[in-house]
Amino acid sequence: MHIPDALAPAVAFEELLPGVLKGTHEFRGELTLIVDPADVERAVRFLRDTRGLIFNYLSDISAVDYFDPIKGYGDYGDRPARFGVSYHLYSLLYNRRIRLKTFVDEDVAIPTITTLWDGANWLEREIFDMMGIPFEGHPNLRRVLMPEDWEGHPHRRDYPLGYETIMFSFNADEINKHKPYAKD
Amino acid sequence: MATTSKRPLALEIPEATENALGQGQTWEGSLEDLRGLVSDRAITGETMLLNLGPHHPSTHGVLRLLLELDGEEIVTCLPDVGYLHTGIEKNIESKSYEKAVTLTDRMDYLAPMSNNAVFSLAVEKLTGLDVPERAQVIRVICLELTRLNSHLVWLGTHAMDMGAMSVFLYCFREREFILDMFEKLGGQRMMTSYIRPGGVWRDLPEDFLPALEKFLGYFPNRIDDYEKLLTNNPIWRDRTEGIGVIEPEEAIALALSGPCLRGSGVNFDIRKAMPYSGYENYDFNVPLGEHGDVFDRYIIRVHEMRESVKIIQQAIKKLSSASGGFRSNNRKFVPPPRAELGRSMEAVIHHFKLWTEGYSVPDEEVYVAIESPRGEIGCYLHGTGGNKPRRVHFKTPSFMHISALGKLCSGYMLADLIGIVGSIDCVLGDSDR
Asked: Which chain A residue's Cα is nearest to B256?
């Protein structure tokens, strides 16, 4: 079987899908491609199906919150938006990994990639559950780890820690005084 | 079950009374909530809905499966996880990197060393920390012992689910020896936290290698014993062959990994594909299945145990010639030995700084994956530039495998489901984190 030569992903994007790639980043040999949230499904499909790329195995989808309590909302350093969502893909053919990353603000939906891999279903549900990032077109976007009636998204950096304190006292005022969240 | 669509699915909390939960909250789940998830026949009451778990003995922990049954045939299977969610990832965000290692043990409690290793490798990649050769060899020994440990528990419980009680006793007998060795290494039997960023916690104790060699002396024969009980047993074969079949393309689409993926014949073992901790220097085979059924996943894990023994034997030979210590000498990341503290002021400073503040890592992200006994366990680690991570996310094989259960078991009988759940080897601590 003839296997076509591997292509450099960034070059392939420039040639075959111009305008989609917003930037690249390399750290310790890990290549990150940055795209707009609306282009995620297109870009992942391109990475999966293009000759010479064939990133055909979905390793992971992770999300990170760049909110910093000291800087406050709106200031995320050199990142364009509050959340980063990283798609870690692996090529079983060429034995290499790649990260596709996109930045979204609150309540901005990302197109789902469950159309490409069924395995993305629960990974996207987990991100929705933990970070509150919605995925457009997801067949069953419900919480997966937290209870269905849970309020808030625990992995956001502004989610209060220590919400449920151990109560050594039965005095309600005493208990309220030690709770770290806003009182109003 | 009743056939009206209004019937409640879960316990109804009674209306607020003065002393109880109080807030006037009620939750009335109804079949309408499940529309789209189960077939319409379940809504009309033609098929039966059955709850399996979350404490059913064959679901290995708190896995709940909502099954739609047509007679005994499974139409839909909706897995429900989260009962063991303990917020480990969130907890790590408020810990320094060195202290976070102990939390990773608690995720996949049958393979704690794999979790330690993937987190340590991620921290090492992020900080650029070196790991001496000897530490890498010790890690390989630990990782393979963990694989044996985990596969033994899996084999015992899987066989017991299917009605072969005696295998469980033999497997746990051998597992005891492995846990005893872990106790020699880390002081604890299960939650060892032995593998840490920069190497391992301490050097191998004197009585470890003799115990290991003794174990390796008899263990291969014990694997033969397990196989005698199961592999050619007609009942075992009847219950496992042709059950839970998954095609290679489908296995990739469902992001399965480890023995579940290789059972379908996809040759993807991270130890071979992207070696870490010096796995490229070991000679071992990756067993592959042909049919992708429960039996193939069983036989692959049994063969993997033999390969693990081979790897450990090679590692013992390498141990005497491996250079370096059991952990890195980079004092900015690894605390100095106790003996140095009495002589060197610098060592005292390093010791103090490392155990109070910890070390800073760059504001960058890495993804590291290793081959745990269950499959690809990945660690996505994002630093802040300070001493605590911004985000750590574990991609765990059990989570992916449970999400695939719906596809794996539809069309099979209820009794086959027990075998399928066993064959994907899910650990709920691993799945829920």
From this structure: A119
Which domains, from first to last, does chain B contain?
Answer: 1-28 (no CATH), 95-398+417-422 (1.10.645.10)
What pLDDT sits at residue A158?
A: 80
Position of tokens 């111009």? A18
Supply the range of the domain harboring residue A117.
Answer: 9-150
% of residues, chain B, pLDDT over 90? 35
Q: Residue A90: CA atoms inside 13 Å, Cβ hemisphere, count? A: 22
| Per-residue pLDDT at B1 exceeds 60 | no
Interface ipTM: 0.84
- For tokens 């069309």, what's the residue? B411
Question: What pLDDT, on a 0 to 100 scale, did the predictor assign at position B135?
Answer: 92
Interface check for B298 against chain A (CB to CB < 8 A): the answer is no
In total, chain A counts a number of residues equal to 184
Q: How far is B256 from chain A (nearest CA, A)?
A: 8
CA-closest candidate to residue B143, choices B114, B167, B119: B114
In a domain, A92, yes or no: yes
pLDDT above 50 (res B287): yes
Instruction: Compare CB distances from B367 to A30, A140, A145 and report the shortest one's residue.
Output: A30
Number of domains in chain A: 1
Which uninterrupted H or E stretch holds B200?
strand B199-200
